[in-house]
Known about the structure:
The chain is mainly alpha-helical. It has six helices and no strands. The protein has helices spanning about 1-25, 30-35, 45-60, 65, 75-95, 100-120. The longest helix has 24 residues, at about 1-25. The termini are close together.
Amino acid sequence: MNxxxxxxxxxxxxxxxxxxxxxxxxxxxxxxxxxxxxxKDYSDGAVKGIGAVEVLGAxxxxxPWLTGIAPVxxxxxxxxxxxxxxxxxxxxxxxxxxxxxxxxxxxxxxxxFVAIGRFAG
Length: 121
C-alpha cells in the first residue's frame, strides 16, 4: 500500500507541478491556447493564483511525508487537490468542455486515495 501511495503522490506532484508552472510562467493568452478555453473567464491574476495553488499542492503532496517534517500536511495537501479538481470539473461542465473530464476524475480519485491512505497512517 505504501508503494501505491508513493506512486500516486509522485504522479500528482508531476502533473500539478507541470500544470501550475505553465499557468505561472505563461501569459493568460498562452494558457488559453495551450490548455483550453476555461481561462477566458478568469483574470490574469486568477490564472496565476490557480497556478500557485497547483504548485503548492504538488510540493505539499510529497515533501512533508518525504522529509518527515509535519507529515500531516501531505494528506491535507491531497484534500486541497481534491477541492481543486471538484472546482475544475465544475468549470469544465459550465463551458461544456467534457473532453478533459476523465483526466479531472482520475486526478480527483488519485488525490482522494492519497488523502485517505495517508490520514489512515
